[in-house]
Amino acid sequence: MAAAPACLCYLSQNPTISNLNLSLFKPNVLSLRSFFHSPFPSLSQKHYLRLRPCKCSSTAPLSTTTYEFSDGSSEVELRLNIGGLDIRSSRDILVDTNDTSLAIRVLRPGSPITLIETNPLFDRIKSSETIWYIDDDQLVVNFKKQDPDLKWPDIMESWESLTAGSSQLLQGTSIYLVGDSTEINQNVAQELATGLGYTPLSTKELLEAYTKQTVDSWLLAEGSDSVAEAESAVLESISSHARAVVATLGGKHGAAGRSDKWQHLYAGFTVWLSQTEALDEDSAREETDNNVKDGIISYTNSDVVVKLQGWDPAYTKNVAQACLSALKQLILSDKKLPGKKSLYIRLGCRGDWPNIKPPGWDPSSEGNATLGTQ
Questions:
Q1: Residue among 144, 203, 210, 151 at smallest CA distance from 176
Q2: What is each CA distance from 338 to 35, 123, 170, 242, 348, in whole angstroms?
Q3: Does residue 358 have a cis bond before it (omega within 30 degrees)?
Q4: Where is the CS domain positioned along the sequence (predicted)?
Q5: CA dist., res. 323 & res. 330, Å (int)
Q6: Cα–Cα distance for residue pair 334/178, rounded to 1 Å
Q7: Phi/psi zone of residue 9: left (φ > 0), alpha (ψ -120 to 50 degrees), beta?
Q8: Would you place residue 49 in the very low, low, confident or very high pLDDT band (cuts 50, 70, 90)?
């Protein structure tokens, strides 16, 4: 039976909701299992950004201000310009934090002004060790990071910070998108590749370019077994590629839809883009758990699963962001994963993932038992 994916991310259809909690991202995704370490020197530089508050519980207008962000070795610092807000003492400021969120407000009778409210932060902090003070026209907030080795591109988790920070996490490891919809796989792969600076690849396009016929006509002429075998050969040829985002064929006629064809998919991080009718994260998590227990759907071999309630190409970036958020959580839970993927490739993608056998191991000696985890 397949192991449960490490991170689940659920996206609802409501594009007006903006909340990420554990692996829950709205709009448009639920995340269930939501890795050559290289320095990231640019992250130690200060970034000057126009502040766009993420969320506001106040009825008063939001303050439009700027902030400076910098990352040290064990802490991060946020500086917000507060000049012109008529702040007379520290009692006029409320800084509210927990391990994953931050809210800063200027207190006004009946109408507090929210300077920033973000959930989640880029990573976890030691909220009890947060300190802040006023320095001339700036509010300075220092946070202790729970993971001092992780460089933060920005204070908040966003598409921009995830794409900027993913190089230190992925370390060149490719990403494979699987699921029942070839169209969704292709759209999200293109968005991810653009954001990460990776090469976008589509097994559908590669197959059609090679055979000079459409996959649909191929299915009619030779059947799904032939298509799955051909896609498996394509996956083998690109399994040693680094920095690629690969969109696979959707449905049972694709290699990813068959447990015995996952040998080369394990070379990268696999994301299952799963459409669901679940209305909330708990339901989506239960649905995924049942999929794993049933052992019927080969997509449960994936590293992470992103649940989509409906599909609209307009929200492709939201889905891509949820994929990166889930992958970030997975990699931070085991920082050896990129190196392990690299070792798996160097040993020939023999199908022994995740329990990699010593060099010289012969898969046929075990009847290919590890090639599928149905």
A1: 203
A2: 4, 19, 6, 11, 16
A3: no
A4: 62-163
A5: 11
A6: 22
A7: beta
A8: very low
3-state helix/strand/coil string of 6-37 = CEEEEECCCCCCCEEECCEEECCEEEEECCCC
Q: Which of 187, 199, 178 is nearest to 316 (CA)?
A: 187
- Residue range 58-86, pLDDT digits in tens: 333 444 468 999 999 899 999 999 988 88
As a whole number of angstroms, the distance between CA 309 and CA 103 comes to 29
Q: Which of 19, 14, 28, 4 is closest to 286 using CA atoms?
A: 4
Q: Going by DSSP bridges, is the β-strand pair 199-202/244-247 parallel, antiparallel, or unpaired?
A: parallel
Three-state DSSP at 227 gives helix
CATH match of 159-347 with 3.40.50.2300: no
Give residue-wise pLDDT tens across range 230-284. Answer: 999 999 999 999 999 999 999 888 999 999 999 999 999 999 999 988 888 888 8
As a whole number of angstroms, the distance between CA 325 and CA 346 comes to 27
Domain ranges of the chain: 67-145, 159-347
Contact 183, 344 (CB under 8 A): no
In 3-state terms the chain splits into helix, strand, coil percentages (rounded to 5) of 35, 25, 40
Q: What is the spatial distance between Cα 131 and Cα 150, in angstroms, rounded to a whole number?
A: 20
Helices (H), the chain: 159-170, 182-196, 203-211, 215-222, 224-238, 281-294, 316-333, 337-346
H-run or E-run covering 266:
none
CA distance 21 to 141: 23
Query: How does pLDDT run across 107-141, given as a tens digit for each residue?
Result: 988 888 999 999 899 999 999 999 999 998 999 99
Q: DSSP assignment, residue 267? A: G
Instruction: Let me know if domain 67-145 sits in CATH 2.60.40.790.
Output: yes
331 near 38, Cβ under 8 Å? no
